[in-house]
Specification:
- The chain has 372 residues and is mainly α.
- The protein has a two-stranded antiparallel ribbon with strand order 1-2.
- The protein has 17 helices and two strands.
- The protein is globular and about 60 Å long.
Length: 372
């Protein structure tokens, strides 16, 4: 057994140290950056690792411009104006609320404040104080509290429970300010997971979301976590939830990709089964996600989320050409699963991108054939 664990550790280390890959006589080999045979991401139009944007899964220039203004000036008004002009039932509003809350949380982490220093994220506190009836500010504050609980406390502790209960109250206030907005209830799904809502309580909350936005992909992703084995459900319940959502999804909806997220949430921590990523359950979920991507509107704000997860599975399945096709679409932004689970999302994404390039070239591909 000790020998087995040693071999597994060496295998994981080899992947961690794998910077760039190349093709020689059909074999993928490790090479170092700067080696004449090392693949240059620029050959495929890819963004270099150091320039990858870890904040968002895909482009939202309006959001990035506003974030820059808010963080540079510490004035919340641009954020309030952007959210006020964002459709309340759409996926974009949920993503923007998450982004503003995450930015405030990161600022607070970097500058916790002290006797002579203003804490980071002060603009959010001023926003709530000066415009207590602003629905956007209330939604961002609720999401901020939920994120803070997960970031700074351990589930089950008193500190975690106190912050989560405050987040639950904030969700209720945000919902009252914007009755048709599903976002406060989507945030409460995270609270429900943290505070151990019973299944009847959770289903009651879920019905409120379905009444407002029945095809909201972000809400379904948040709900899926609750039904997972590691939280309050099981593999069977999670798969059932995902497959039911996919079955009732209207044409063009990315909900057809939800089973792939269920598979991802239940991946074995150590996979010793040869061909696992070519198994029927993985292949079926990948095919469903690919179909959803091809049928979806190309401006669907959740499209990048699905494409990023597809890159992960397609590379693991050694479906190099399809992986390269998805990479062309998402390259540049890496703020999505599975990369955000890593301490260095850009490096994790770049590693999988290098694997895809190596496998593609090992099977006769080149920049010319991909871009033609």
């Amino acid at each position: 057994m000790a020998i087995l664990w040693t071999l597994m550790a060496l295998l994981l280390l080899s992947f961690a140290l794998l910077p760039v890959l190349r093709r020689r006589r059909g074999v993928i080999e490790r090479v170092h950056p700067g080696h004449p045979d090392a693949a240059d991401p620029a050959d495929y139009g890819f963004v270099r690792e150091e320039d990858l944007d870890v904040r968002l899964p895909g482009p939202d220039q309006d959001l990035l411009d506003v974030l820059d203004v808010v963080q540079r000036t510490q004035d919340y008004r641009a954020a309030a104006q952007l959210l006020a002009g964002t459709e309340i039932t759409g996926e974009v509003r949920w993503q923007r609320v998450q982004a503003f809350a995450g930015a405030a949380a990161l600022e607070l982490k970097e500058r916790p404040g002290g006797v002579s220093e203003t804490p980071g994220g002060q603009w959010l506190r001023v926003w709530r104080a000066e415009q207590p009836k602003d629905a956007g500010g209330a939604a961002v504050h609720a999401e901020f509290l939920a994120q803070q609980a997960w970031r700074t406390s351990t589930p089950g502790t008193d500190d975690f429970r106190i912050i989560m209960e405050e987040a639950r109250d904030a969700c209720g206030q945000a919902a009252l300010l914007s009755p048709g907005d599903p976002v406060p209830y989507v945030t409460e799904l995270s609270v429900a997971r943290g505070l151990n809502y019973s299944q009847p309580e959770f289903e009651k909350l879920w019905l409120k979301i379905l009444d407002r936005a029945p095809t909201h992909m972000g809400a379904h992703l948040a709900a899926l976590h609750y039904w997972c084995e590691k939280w309050h459900g099981s593999r069977e319940l999670a798969y059932s939830f995902a497959e039911a959502a996919a079955a009732r999804a209207p044409r063009g909806s990315l909900l057809a990709a939800l089973p792939l997220f269920a598979v991802f949430e239940h991946l074995p921590e150590v996979n010793l089964v040869a061909g696992f990523y070519q198994s029927e359950v993985v292949t079926k979920a990948v095919h469903g996600a690919l179909h959803a991507v091809h049928a979806a509107r190309q401006d669907d704000p959740m499209l990048a989320h699905v494409r990023h997860l597809l890159v992960f599975f397609l590379v693991r399945s050694e479906r190099w050409s399809e992986a390269m096709g998805e990479l062309i679409s998402v390259d540049g932004h890496v703020g999505a699963l599975p990369w955000t689970l890593s301490a260095n999302p850009a490096a994790e994404f770049a590693l999988y991108r290098a694997l895809a390039v190596a496998g593609y070239e090992a099977n006769g591909g080149s920049p010319a054939t991909l871009l033609s």
